[in-house]
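Example 3.2
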Amino acid sequence: MDIFQFLLLTTRQRAEVVSRKEHLFKRVEFTKTILLYQINNFFVEVHLEPNTKKIERLIAFKSTELLEPYLSNVCFADIGHLLN
């Protein structure tokens, strides 16, 4: 599935696709929880409603610039051995 096929799905179908994956990162922005998933060659942010944890919106993207908020969660010391 590519990003265009994903975007053609209904919100419910997108949520089903994402639910089959394990999230890469979790961050909290104000009171909102945001989960990051990777699906093939694109990413999906899932914004959860603070009280009910229901999906508020799904944002699909390919731009690595949008990954910047997650970089503080990466510990490069843990992957240093992979770079040698």
